[in-house]
Design a protein that fits this description.
heterodimer, A: alpha/beta, Rossmann fold, six-stranded mixed sheet, 9 strands, B: mainly alpha, MetI-like fold, two-stranded antiparallel sheet, 10 helices, 2 strands, globular
Chain lengths: 255, 271
Amino acid sequence: MAEPLVELTGVEHRYRAKRTEVPVLGPLDLRVDRGEFLVVVGPSGSGKSTLLRLISGFERPSTGEVLVLGRAPAPGRDVGTVFQQPRLFPWQTAGGNVGTALRWAGVPRADRPQRTRELLGQVGLAELGARRTWEISGGQQQRVAIARALAARPTLLLMDEPFAALDALTRERLQEDVRSLTDGDRGVVFVTHSVDEAVFLADRVVVLSDRPGRVALDLPVPLPRSGVPADQLRGSAEFAALRGEVAGAVRAVAV
Amino acid sequence: MTQNDPTGATLSAAHSVLVRAAAVVALIGLWQMLVLAEFWPPVVLPGPGRVWDQLITASDAGNGQGGYAGSTVAERLAVSLRRVGYGSAYGIVIGVGLGLVMGLVPLVRAVAEPFVTFLRALPPLAYLSLLVIWFGIDEEPKVYLLVVAAFPPVAVATAAAVTGVNRQYVEAAHALGATRLGVVATVVLPASAPEILTGVRLAVGVAYSSVVAAETVNGADGIGGMVLNAQRYNQTSVVLLGLVVIGVTGLLIDTAVLALHRAVSPWRGRA
């Protein structure tokens, strides 16, 4: 069995609201292995984003333990994050955003231009490094955000509904690109509302219940990761069957 | 290039220059008409021609008076601009520094804000006396006066800008492994730059409008000193000349700061 990348044990999370505490997540046990692409699906308010904030170290669980690579997570260490909005710094160019991330990752100045080109090339934007962030499309901005998140070569990539704001066509293209991100032993935890997106991307789908979010379904997705064209994969009977199973679980937990 | 306003109305650059020029010509025309109508004697309201002649005379170092009372208009302007330059520069440095700390540390903000607001409310002439007692009548109190006048608007603007930086950028920076210092240098300062420069614009304006006050004590060599001197001798045309010179150079400086403002924040309103 592969070494766990992320391990959540007995995790519960509550938000303090006035004098009461609102439980948003858990109790929850979850583990993500190296090289695994885990997609988390759930209704709004099921704590999907909170789950990512706990794994990235932006928040600590009210009870239980979160471990990333065997230690408590801290923002910017081992973990890269892609948010729903690209959050690119508009006072820098597309390449400047990636360069800044490389600087923060400790990459020597002399290596940064080359690495910036490589990272932008990896997301298909090799030519757009000099562009201002507002001069490129929403899909391209999100690609730059992915390149930026990969700058520190994180062992774990967290993606919080990164394609929710994009049009259907752009979304499908980016999904196809993102499938290759788990190459090697990098793990991905990807949050989405879309059952289609979940089944297409995942090695494993976890469906969270309505608040407080608990694991309602933990389903391996044994679809081929490469070698099959995306359209063919989406049109296959296995895809439809898995899709049906996940959709059923989502319907069951939605109020 | 067009000049935008929030309502979406635009004026082309050529058009804009034309409209402004027309307004200036109209104003000078109105001034001339008032003079021709002889509502007031020329000693109260001299015409534009008279003020122009005064500019020529006061700019001539070889006119027997060395321009006006020992210095030409250009020399006086240079002296005053130097004071404004030093006063604004120190004021901006102090203002940005203090504003940054106020914006980042709530405790400092709570302590410093009343003092900054207190200083802002004081007219420069009111604390000039104190500065003269403390620092004498040489160059220091004049520059200090401008510093005290210039730094509060920058501090207030910087503190507000820093507090208002979009948390999403800060969080993105932390997620990328930025240190606290890295976040301040790479995210907070650039994100705040447009608002800080609005404060700088105000500060330079305040410093410039305070230079006349600063030159009331042993400042006869400046442009404000010229105005005060001329007032003493009822030389209305010289007073008007001084006001026009201060106004026009103030306008040019403001245009330069505004251009800088646009240059550092082309992303404003687009991201």
